[in-house]
Amino acid sequence: MLYREAGQYKTSYAADQAVFPILQDRIGLVAILLIAFVVIPISGSEFLLQAMMIPILVMGLAAIGLNLLIGYTGLISLGTGAFMGVGAYACYKLATLFPGVNILIWVIASGLAAAGVGVLFGLPSLRIKGFYLAVATLAAQFFLSWCFIRVPWLYNYNISASIEVPTRTFLGIPVTGPTATPVTRYLVVLTIVVVMTWLASNLVHGRIGRMWMAVRDMDIAAELIGIKLYRTKLLAFAVSSFYCGVAGAMLAFLWLGAAESESFNINQSFLVLFMVIIGGLGSLTGSFFGAIFIWGLPIVLRNAPGVFGLSITAATIEHITFMTVGALIIFFLIVEPAGLARLWQIAKQKLRVWPFPY
Amino acid sequence: MNILYQIFIDPLVQMGTAPDLLVQTLWEGLVAGVLYALIALGFVLIFKASGVFNFAQGIMVVFAALTLVGLYERGVPAFVALGLTIVVMLGLAFAIERLMLRPLVNQPDIILFMATFGLTYILIGLGEMIFGGDPKVMITDALYLPRGAIDVKMLGGFVSLQKIDIAAAIIASIMVAGLAVFFQKTRIGRALRAVADSHKAALSVGISLEQIWVVVWFAAGIVALATGIMWGARSNVSFALEIIALKALPVLILGGFTSIPGAIIGGVIIGIGEKLGEFYWGPLLGSGIESWLAYVIALIFLLFRPQGLFGERIIERI
Amino acid sequence: MRMRNLIFGASVACLVGAPVVASQALAEDTIFVPLLTYRTGPFSNSGIPIANGMHDYLDMLNERDGGIGGVKIAVEECETGYKNEKGVECYEALKSKKPVVVNPYSTGITLALIPKASVDHIPILSMAYGLSASAQGQDFPWIFNPPATYWDGLSMIIKYIADKEGGFDKLKGKTIGYVYFDGGYGLEPIPLLDQLAKDYGFEVKKYPVPPADMQNQSGLWLSVRRDRPAWMIMWGWGAMNPTAVQEAAKINYPMDHFIGVWWSGSEDDARPAAAGGKGYLSLNFNSVGANYPAIQDIQKYVVDKGKSQTQKDKVGENFYNRGVMNSVIMAEAIRNAQQLTGKKVVNAEDVRRGFESLKISGARWKELGLDGFAGPIAVSCTDHNGHHAAYVQQWDGTKWVKISDWITPMKDKVQPLLDAAAKDYVTKNQPWPKRTEACDKSS
Fold first, then answer.
1. CA nearest A49 in C: which residue?
2. Distance (Å, rounded) from C-alpha C126 to C-alpha C184?
3. Which terminus of chain A is less hemmed in, N or C, by CB atoms within 10 Å?
4. Angle of CA points B122, B127, B133, to nearest 5°
5. Residue partners of C225: CB distance under 8 A and separation at least 6
6. Which residue of A has its CA nearest to B130?
7. Chains touching chain A at 3 or more Cβ pairs under 8 angstroms?
């Protein structure tokens, strides 16, 4: 009833091709941005910001990065964690070598380092496909994880082999380090994520995105219509790693405040992969749905017994959480293999004709 | 020059001066390789018959071993526990087929792959809930598995062969031979190969896919149990074993996803390669290179043969 | 976009709701002590007994004495799985419930929490783990790591080795192997190890164990067989420990020359190697066994009543007792805080003061029903560690046996490194908050 496009005429091609062609969608988007930028920082508890919103945004951005690779270009990668690590360590090196430069510049620049490494490890994709490629990217994962410990230069010879994030300010307000308030860090993360999501949206709706999708659907056919495979695939690796790198830099600088090699291990890669698949391959919104689901569900489950006044030991809750997450992953895959994004689309479709579906 | 010497000459000198250590390294590599190969075998069985890349194979290893030891600790005699564990694995195979594979039939590979991740989570939670997260000592003696080592004097030193490792190698060969006979000679085995060739054709000649899937998952469960017993006897049964199962992945891509001999040979190449690399070249790079060397070896092989050593040739048509 | 709102709304409701309800459940007059534990994952073999010991002792105080100074302790476990992200999440979730002290039980989580705790004003007790440099009370007023740092531990091991070899001069030319967990925890002792190697003229061979290969160490021990170190030192944790002991036995390494730090000395580390593990050494600073009145009380009030997750035969094992000791230190700090402030319900700031003037003498251990359970502990404003002694224990095939006297650390070697490391930490993390907290005279 409310969500109906009747009477919204499109008078130009641009309007017809808009990302959000329906007025209600645009209103919804503005509403969400308003909630995210205004309501949550004002009303959210510290825990909500620090343990829910920041991780979801950071992981969501990493999921977008991986989604560009798997969902849009059809190249499976299990090295996301390592590429995030490259971002984090690059950001740390840059921030400590050039303390005078604004930290936010380095957070973005660290993505470039990750992109470079991503291209390097993307080279095998020119020859290897499918699961074979997935396992090949594991080489990147384990090799880089090893480097994060074995190359002490990367963490400035810290005796604990961890990176400790120094305090840096932006316009006089600390944005990283222990004195930065969760609200500041949340707003910085949110801004970066929103801008980068908007860029990604433009990218996938444009020529490059269409090239990627052609490669995904059938690379030989794509080659026949004049798409240069190596350029397209490597570009996908570069852009994907760029996003993962920025996410990694934010993980270390704006979320945890310290990081070590183990923060970027294989489990991190799998976690992001879950998000992408549960959220929906080839959907940017889906990446966030996936992040909310995979990150939020265990937290909700963990807090649930307390809400109902049950006393279950922490270990049992953890076991139940594991089983529930596992069962829900399978359940969602059975119900809707195309992910939460597809469910969302179906819901919108239904809503369009509600309450008279004829 | 010095670096070149250290990379190319020094290891060879070491090999020459201490040949017993070289033999020992090769042996350790072989044993590790056999164990990797056993995990990889579980992957291959399932991939061949159902096209599922079963990520849960590693946790199935832990789960099977944990069930065995857990039952024994609760007072069940060892061989009864072994039998019961096999029943549990059969039950698991049925449950997986009924609740996971059947509803997901005809979905893209990556979806099935993800589903096995879900399975991994369920098995981790279930295993820890029932048997506890603390590691358990494998019941080596109760199963009449050998303990101790044989020291063979040779080449001016000695080579220590663990009896359990020898047993592992023998059991692995028996399993591979058994599987080969099963595939070649039995009705179900032939049906399995038919399914591997083409699901549709197999269905049209009246082979029940459901039944085949239960059989392969059960077979993979048995392989997992054997692997779990062997790894468990070498260190002990804990959830950390699951991480080692990842080492089966380079073995897989090296051998090819669909080849049983490939899994064995791939396992041995990876096992020996990584032990030699760690032992002779590791110190140059600050050690610990074992964690990634296997993947790099596999990657190099892949660049020359994108389908693995024994995989089916990938033919692409428009 | 409504669905997204819905999910947001639901999760927000759950999250905001959960702490509110839970904190209502906590009565006004309790002291909240959260425990970050890990009973799941690859490190659970080390994590479970410690979690049990910590939890049971606090439960026992509640059951037997009605808490500390008449105030009940509210204990809550948060499962970290030894993962940093989870640990930080636990910390954030627990922060709102006003904890008086946090136990991270992971070096990685401790490192992530050190800067946060200093800002949030919550004391962190990292008992003989975490950042060695945090022993410097002037720079880290909120972090406590008694009774000894990793560096103290390493210096004690070297002292023990020198003693067995017949003097420090005998170390010259010897090779000492160092097998370690390839992460912050295992890397930390290396600067001191290199320093001591230079000072005493021995050679160090390092054998890192990557986290993914904890149960796959055969290649590493082959290198040990080649290099033939006279002594092996281990800095292991989780599934790495039992595997290392087994592999050492496999290559016939003399087990009485293989010595682990205090985190590599649980019964479960040595037991799987069966006869091969006999003779394995490890450092320890608490006693093993259940023959202490306080531990008997735990049996009586908690375990026998089925209020614990502990199996009966595990009470009194080394890591269980380690957990008990951890809780004793917390309980004593809380009690001390009550005495200092005269308040019953103390807050985090009070407990910090309680820690800073903490003294557990031999007599006090006896009063606690733990006569001879551990050495005396003293913490001061400048020294948050105390650099106390430890002893060496040996596995006789079924249990740990104390085989050495208390060994004191080489303070002269450790202190300069501590000073330098603390200074380095502070300069790298500028602007690091200056200490403003006043110092209490120790009670």
1. C92
2. 14
3. C
4. 120
5. B21, B24, C251, C253
6. A319
7. B, C
Contact A322/C at CB under 8 A: yes
Q: Does C84 contact A25 at a Cβ distance shorter than 8 Å? A: no
Amino acid at B188: I
Give the pair of three-digit tokens for residue C345. 């319900």
User: Mind listing the pLDDT tens digit for each residue in A206-256?
Assistant: 999 999 999 988 888 998 999 998 899 999 999 999 999 999 999 999 888
Nearest CA to CA, how far is A187 from chain B (Å)?
Answer: 33
Interface contact A300-C11, CB threshold 8 A: yes
* Gyration radius (Cα) of chain B, Å: 21
C164 to chain B, closest Cα gap in Å: 29
Ramachandran category for residue A58: left, alpha or beta (phi over 0 → left; psi -120 to 50 → alpha): alpha
Cβ atoms of residues A186 and A40 within 8 Å: yes
**If 0-12 CB within 10 Å is exposed, 13-18 middle and 19+ buried, where does residue A357 land?**
exposed
User: Which residues face C35 on adjacent strands?
Assistant: C77, C103
* B122-161 pLDDT, tens digit each: 998 898 888 877 777 788 777 778 777 787 777 777 788 8
**Angle between the N-to-C axes of helices B19-50 and B260-276, in degrees from 0 to 180, rounded to the nearest 10:** 150
Question: Cβ of B118 and A326 within 8 Å?
Answer: yes
pTM confidence score: 0.89
Specify the 3-state DSSP secondary structure of C375: coil
Are the beta carbons of C246 and B24 separated by less than 8 Å? no
What's the CA gap between C364 and C374, in Å, rounded? 11
Among B31, B162, B240, the residue with its CB nearest the CB of C42 is B240
Interface test with B, best of A120, A121, A330 (most B CBs within 10 A): A330
A54 touches chain C (CB under 8 A): no
Q: Whole-angstrom Cα distance, residue A45 to residue C297?
A: 41
Please write the tens of the pLDDT for every residue from A296-342: 888 888 777 766 666 677 778 888 888 888 898 888 888 888 888 88
Contact A142, B298 (CB under 8 A): no
Nearest-neighbour CA in chain C from A187: distance (Å): 17
ipTM of the complex: 0.86
Which letter, b or e, does each residue of A81-93 get, where b requires 16 or more Cβ atoms within 10 Å of its Cβ? bbbbbbbbbbbbb
DSSP H helical segments within A35-129, as ranges? Answer: 40-43, 46-47, 54-67, 80-97, 103-122
CA distance B204 to C358: 80
CB C78 within 8 A of CB C94: yes
Strand partners, C75: C33
DSSP string, B7-47: IIIHHHHHHHH-HHHHHHHHHHHHHHHHHHHHHHHHHHHHH
Closest residue in chain C to residue A174, using alpha carbons only: C431
For B219-257, give one letter per residue: b (16+ CB within 10 A) or e: bbbbbbbbbbbbbbbbbbbbbbbbbbbbbbbbbbbbbbb
- Residue at C285: amino acid letter: F
Question: What Rg value do the Cα atoms of chain A yield, rounded?
Answer: 21
**Taking an 8 Å Cβ-Cβ cutoff, which residues of chain C contact chain B?**
39-42, 44-45, 47-48, 182, 206-216, 218-220, 222-223, 225-226, 238-239, 242-243, 246, 250-252, 268, 271-272, 274
Least Cα distance to C289 among C377, C366, C373 occurs for: C373
| CA A31 from centre of chain | 22
